[in-house]
Specification:
The complex is a heterodimer of chains A (409) and B (230). Chain A has 409 residues and is an alpha+beta fold. Chain A is 55% helix and 17% strand. In chain A, strand 2 and strand 3 form a beta hairpin. The longest helix of chain A has 44 residues. The two termini of chain A are 33 Å apart. In chain B, the strands form 2 sheets. In chain B, strands 6-7-8-3-9-10 form a 6-stranded mixed beta sheet, sandwiched between helices. Chain B is globular and about 50 Å long. The mean pLDDT of chain B is 88. Classes of the chains: A alpha+beta (409), B alpha/beta (230). At the A-B interface, helix 1, helix 10, helix 11 and helix 13 of A face helix 1, helix 2 and helix 3 of B.
Chain lengths: 409, 230
């Protein structure tokens, strides 16, 4: 074992022998680093969530939602808005350049789907055949419905993966008949698994029928919740979105100064809005954690300075048996560093756990990477050195002769 | 082994206010041969401990010269002096300071911590040292579990672990009862017999008389008192 390693081991022994002092010094670091890493983990979670949403939604998709307020994620309840019509979708399709395909979207919660003695209440969607391509959904079994089904107002349905599992635990859904409301529907296909989306919406827990069927039979209403469209040239997405907005304002007869009764969502909105909501809180917590860490650094410095005074005779003894001034400095600097690094490790772990708990509770998203640990290590090293240097210098400057002369311990 | 010539040392008046310097050592000269057991006697405040600290390179003299084994280290830096303390000198202090939170064995191994090279059989060596002071069976005890005499013997074992040529003892029996003190002096005499050079500082004539020679430190000067007939 090298001289440095022996001194390091000795510093560890000193810390262990003074457990109370060590824990006292560590507390602030633990708290500060815990908050810091929780902020990082939830911040990264939000970012990851948004990135996932954008990639799922695609950078070439525009969504028009009924209602004028900004809605990044799906509304949590049916809103019964009556502003968006199929004719709006057809106008977008025919009047606006750069639009590749369009689908209307209706949806309604509380749709009851029954197979024999199994039943499930879920969210129903009425869409057009192009919808599956616009939303980049996949079919696991069977197929999506066609233009013919649309024309025939066919009672066909495509099931989300979870619905299929609940109603057909032994498989064989495609081709079977389920009852929706009072009518029999033929299961045409099953979607691939999509998971829960960023807004907490379970994409696998839904059923999709042709728009004609939903508007005339199932929901019995013409109004739309959404219009979704794909553009040809994603670089002109913003211009296209603006044109959609202008067109709808004209079609909805809105004069100057009147707010939109719809919301045109493009990928940038998703990103911006989702990040904005969390950034204020993050900044506040970040500042708090830095303040806590600085305070803990000052505590450590003072405890260490006190400890140097109390241990002057021990230092003198070590010097007498051959410790160099630099060995003593190293010993005390290591004590400070080990305290903050251990505190940092505990804090980082607690912060990650806290973030995961918040994520489980649905309050925040968590995405654990190496970053909080790297940040904790860097911050702790900085604090340990910044606040450990002065006690270490003081320890190195203890004059062994005079410390031994004052023999009263 | 040790050559002192006209060594001087003074301290500035403590408290900062009084500039009056205290001349502790005015002109100390002596020769101590290898294998000598020398006691330095003097009244309290006569500068005994200062002289011992200078011999142990814990303090530097203001003037004069000090040669240890022929080498003048007055210009050596702290790292060199630390290394000399580590390898060539063993200290035994009055208050036998030990590190409280580690075992006797670990205390004995303390100097090895600062050796330049690793000592792979350090704990075996430390155990032999404890054995030589009759404390092998107490190796795993903490200092607080040992009597004063035992603690001082641990300190002697610690002083011996790097096989130093010179043992410096500052009132090693000062805090012990007569019986324990006598045991410590027996150990020191045994070391002398084994060929080590020992310089002991005391104000107690009975203690000093265990040495081969007694030097008196008076008025900042050292004078031979008498030679003890062994």
């Amino acid at each position: 074992m090298s001289r440095s390693a022996r001194i390091a081991r000795d510093a560890v022994a000193s810390l262990r022998a003074n457990g109370h002092r060590t824990v006292l010094m560590m507390l602030g670091v633990i708290a500060g680093v815990a908050v810091l890493s929780a902020v990082i983990v939830t911040g990264q979670g939000t970012r990851a969530r948004v990135a996932e949403l954008v990639s799922r939604v695609g950078l070439d998709m525009i969504m028009v939602r009924a209602g004028g307020d900004v809605q990044v994620f799906a509304p949590t309840a049916d809103r019964g808005l009556t502003v968006l019509m199929e004719s709006d979708a057809r106008a977008i399709e025919s009047d606006i350049p750069n639009v590749r395909m369009v689908s209307v979207v209706q949806n309604k919660r509380g749709i009851n789907v029954v197979n024999g003695d199994r039943s499930v209440t879920t969210r129903g969607f009425g869409v057009e055949p192009d919808w599956i391509e616009i939303r980049r959904w996949g079919i696991a079994e069977g197929e999506f419905f066609s233009a013919q089904d649309m024309g025939a107002i066919a009672r066909v349905v495509v099931l989300g993966r979870k619905i299929e599992r609940e109603l057909f635990p032994h498989g064989g859904a495609v081709g079977s008949t389920v009852r929706i409301g009072n009518d029999p529907y033929t299961v045409k296909g099953v979607f691939t698994e999509n998971g829960v989306d960023a807004g907490g919406d379970d994409w696998d827990h839904r059923v999709v029928v042709p728009f004609t069927t939903s508007s005339r039979r199932l929901f019995e209403r013409p109004y739309l919740e959404q219009i979704v469209l794909l553009v040809d040239d994603a670089s002109k997405l913003r211009v296209t979105a603006e044109r959609v907005r202008e067109l709808l304002r004209v079609r909805h007869g809105m004069g100057p100064g009147k707010p939109d009764d719809f919301f045109v969502r493009e990928p940038a909105d998703v990103q911006g809005a989702a990040l904005e909501t969390s950034s204020t809180v993050s900044a506040l917590l970040f500042a708090t954690s830095i303040a806590a860490l600085l305070a803990s650094g000052i505590v450590i410095m003072n405890v260490m300075l006190l400890s140097v005074s109390q241990r002057a005779r021990e230092i003198a003894l070590r010097r007498a048996v051959g410790a160099r001034a630099s060995d003593i400095a190293r010993h005390f600097l290591l004590e400070s560093l080990l305290v903050v690094l251990l505190g940092g490790a505990i804090g980082a772990a607690l912060g990650v756990i806290a973030a995961e708990v918040l994520a489980l509770a649905g309050v925040a998203s968590a995405h654990v990477t190496w970053l909080p640990f790297a940040a904790a290590t860097a911050v702790c090293m900085a604090i340990g050195i910044a606040f450990g240097l002065q006690p270490a210098r003081k320890a190195a400057r203890v004059d062994p002769a005079s410390a031994l002369r004052h023999q009263g311990v | 082994m040790i050559e002192l010539d006209a060594l001087t040392k003074s301290y500035r008046g403590a408290g900062g206010g009084g500039p009056a310097a205290v001349h502790v050592l005015k002109s100390v000269s002596c020769r101590i041969a290898r294998g000598d057991f020398v006691a330095i006697m003097g009244a309290s405040g006569s500068g005994k401990s200062t002289l011992l600290n200078i011999l142990g390179f814990l303090e530097r003299p203001d003037g004069g010269s000090y040669r240890l084994e022929g080498a003048d280290l007055s210009l050596a830096d702290d790292d060199v002096l630390s290394s000399v303390r580590n390898r060539k000198i063993g200290f035994v202090f009055q208050l036998f300071p030990l590190i409280d939170h580690v075992s006797a064995l670990r205390n004995v191994m303390l100097p090895l911590l600062y050796n330049e090279d690793d000592v792979p059989d350090g704990s075996a060596r430390a155990l032999r040292m404890l054995e030589s002071v009759g404390l092998a069976e107490r190796a795993q005890h903490r200092p607080s579990e040992l009597s004063g005499g035992e603690q001082q013997r641990v300190a002697i074992a610690r002083a011996l672990i790097n096989d130093p040529a010179l043992i410096l003892a500052d009132e090693p029996t000062g805090n012990l009862d007569a019986k324990s003190g006598g045991e410590i002096l027996d150990v020191l005499q045994g070391l002398r017999t084994a060929g080590r050079t020992i310089v002991l500082v005391t104000h107690d004539r009975a203690v000093a008389e265990r040495a081969d020679r007694i030097l008196l430190l008076e008025d900042g000067r050292l004078a031979a008192a008498r030679t003890v007939v062994a």
